[in-house]
Amino acid sequence: MKLFRGAKGKLVRKLGINIFDTDRYDKVLERRPTPPGQHGSTGRRPKHSEYGKQLLEKQKLKFAHGITERQFRNIFIKASKMKGAPGVNLMQSLERRLDSVIFRSGFANSRPQARQMVNHGHFLLNDKKANIPSMTIKDGDKVTVHKRACSSKLVQECAQATESRLKMPWLDIDSGNQTIVFVRTPKREEIPILIKEQLIVELYSR
Question: Are the C-beta atoms of residues 95 and 61 closer than 8 Å to each other?
Answer without folding.
Answer: no
